[in-house]
Amino acid sequence: MTGKTPIDNTVVKTLCRMCSNHCSIDVHVRDGRMVEITPGQGNPSNQGRMCPRGDAALDMFYHPDRIRTPLKRQGDGSFVEISRETAIAEIAGKMMEIKHRCGARSMGVWKGEAVGFLQQEEYARRFAHAFGTPNYFSNDSACYNGRFLAHILVNGFWNPFSYYAKADLILLFGTNPPVCHPPFMAEFADAKENGANLVVIDPRLNPIACYADIFAQPLPGTDGAMAWGLIRYLVKAGEYDHKLMDHYSIGFEEVAVYAEKFTPDYVEEQTGIYADVVVNIAQLIIENRPKVSYYMGAGLEHHDNGVNNIRALVILSCITGAFDMDCGLIWPEDMPRNKLTLYDELPLDGEKPIGADRFPVLYDLRKECHSMTAMDYMLGNGDYPLEGLIVTAANPVVTNPNTRKVEEALRSLDLLVVNDLFLTKTAELAHYILPAASFLERSEIHMDPKYQRVYLTSKVAEIPGIKDEYTLWHDLAHSLGFGERYFPWENETQVNRYILEPSGIQIEQLQAHPEGIQYKPLTFQKHLSRPLPTASGKIELTSPYLKKLGYTAIPEYVPPYHLREKSKEYPFILTTGARKTLLYHSRNQNFEHFRKVHPRAQVEIHPDDASELGISNGNQVRIVSSIGALVVEANIVNRNELLRGVIEMYHGWEEWRVNFTTFDCVNDPISGFPLLKGVPVRLEKVENALA
Amino acid sequence: MGWGPNIFVSVDMERRRIYTGTCLQCETALCMEVCPVNAIKRDPETSAVIVDNETCLGCGMCVSACPFGYMNLDDFLRKATKCDLCGGNPKCVQMCMAKALHFGSINSLAERKRKQSDLRLGIRAMPADKDDGQ
Hints:
The structure holds two protein chains of two kinds.
Chain A: E1 10-15, E2 24-30, E3 33-39, H1 52-55, H2 57-61, E4 71-73, E5 79-81, H3 84-102, E6 107-111, H4 119-131, E7 136-138, H5 145-155, E8 169-173, H6 177-180, H7 182-193, E9 197-201, E10 214-216, H8 223-236, H9 242-247, E11 249-250, H10 252-259, H11 264-271, H12 275-288, E12 292-296, H13 298-301, H14 306-320, H15 360-366, H16 371-378, E13 388-392, H17 396-399, H18 403-411, E14 415-420, E15 432-435, E16 445-448, E17 453-456, H19 469-480, H20 483-486, H21 492-500, H22 507-512, E18 517-518, E19 539-540, H23 544-548, H24 561-564, E20 572-576, H25 592-597, E21 602-605, H26 607-612, E22 620-624, E23 629-636, E24 646-649, E25 679-685
Parallel strand pairs in A: 6-7, 6-13, 8-9, 8-12, 9-10, 11-19, 13-14, 14-15, 20-24, 21-23
Antiparallel strand pairs in A: 1-2, 2-3, 4-5, 4-15, 16-17, 17-18, 20-25, 21-24, 22-23, 22-25
Helix pairs in contact in A: 3-19, 4-19, 5-14, 5-15, 8-11, 8-12, 8-14, 11-12, 16-18
Chain B: E1 7-12, E2 17-22, H1 30-34, E3 40-42, E4 49-51, H2 61-65, E5 72-73, E6 80-81, H3 91-95, H4 106-120
Antiparallel strand pairs in B: 1-2, 3-4, 5-6
């Protein structure tokens, strides 16, 4: 593939966006081609190192399968190339037709992970409101929002990851940082070098557990019981932050009373973790508090009790005293900036945002519609029809639960536009496909709240005909007639200037400091001098806000679905989504040299379960849930890696979509998250498989 | 430099341990001694034992000679392949976000190891800024 580099024979210092960790990279350009990416220096986030995904940005940019021209689907399902002008004009025409026929809210916009966050996300949100629809969806509905809401509900702020290197004890729940947050690893290494203990609590023995002083393996979805058990122990021992509980929080009495029943024995009964291990962990917290870091990964939010399990752990962190301090919960400050969203200027709360009735907290606190409910609206089972959708770099046909329904819903749309780098399973269903730009092809602002740093990335290369994300929304908005009012900036650099205006930081300063600038020094113990951003101004151990909405005020522990609905027909617990070293959700699987490492999907099975079912390594097995099935290769793991009765499969494979088996209708009542890590299934050996 | 991996990671799930191994750049390098065409030499700058792809015949004698298994034959190039320390800036070290891999002078690495073993033995060295030389 030909690409051009605006600046030749140089090293362009920018940020990596192969995941969301804001690592600095140096892109080496020689003779009009990007030849190498090496780690960038001077950024505390990556400390002069990088992971192999960063290197692979070049595979992505130069990939022969990149979509280069707009495509339009024909009656027979094939695609023909059309000009960009025609595509934009036709899409705008169909959108206007839907608006006239059913109202603007019958259009939706769906932002995916592959385009990034902050301004890429805000373009999509802005565009939706400018068009007149409140229906903004995103990948965050199945990753991140659950944790975000849990933190906001307790403290009013999102804790953007702690300074782990400063901790004397680090507890990790449901996460595998070497793979999903590589920069954390350097901090863990520093902490351990200074004598810190590491506790890993996860149903799967991930590589991070090999560094752990204690590794405990709970049943999926029981972390809330563990959190409450630890809370009880600390409260009983009187080993908690009395000042913080007495003066800066509400609901401590109720918490202490509710925690009563979570004796170490009860925790063992729920989680499967031995009572004395629970006590050992509690003792470690007492010995090291308040210098304790807790990190809850995506493993916790993919349960129907996820938000409350995470809330209980946030509360544990507060009770420990690990609050508003470096190694504990950080209360970050935003950079003063112009937001691109229109929630103040053009609120559309009265337009019945999809899912806001079922999951009011999700819409109220996150201004996000519920992507699973959207499928019902597309299929004509909602309060009004959802007829059109613009998807930008998301792949819900792979990553949303209940794949069969997602496919059916997207097929039923009058207009499906997919903006993406590659022809994904979702793009295959589109009426129009637009070529998307990668992060190397645009200049955007990043912010890292942990370090309170702001960065400007550089456009390193371009492919003729492929426009950046801003140009997409700009051109569509102008075709629809609201461009001048809402997308007046000519290009992304003008947008960047607008965003930065109130900050007092100039684009030129950021260009001179590609490793980022700290926009405000980080300060701690702010809660002593100002109220928290919650309704009460205090830590809400119990939430009056949730109570008013009809939820319990206390984050009660409800056993997970698989324990409540025990079934002889579906005796196994399927957990999905443990990360792969080189893949990122459904991204990167088409990079040839990554496929050497991850050649095909496998389901991980405990050796005793496998032998009982007569399954050998490499056999084809069928995973069957009450809604669907798929056939995949068996990988019999070491007996320490999984509990008996638990199986695990990666969620991003396009060819082996585990979400055929996962439910869209079992949801966390607060976040609306789907159950992705505790699905009751059965396993069958496939005889005579044509594999 | 070949196409295959030159650093090897094994995970022992029984003992929850991860091991990495790569060429030790031996002072008396058996691979170098056994090579019939003198294709294996020592880089004067980095002291790495390196294979000259132009000279290497791909006979595999060095693979047999290496007592540790860190010399390999590249399937694609049909040449001996091993860690060459990437010319003095090893990519594996750059890519190891966990700071498990280090590259430096032997004494700086010894110092790291000393600190870690002190910690295991419960010896906490006096912080440098408080050390008044006693």
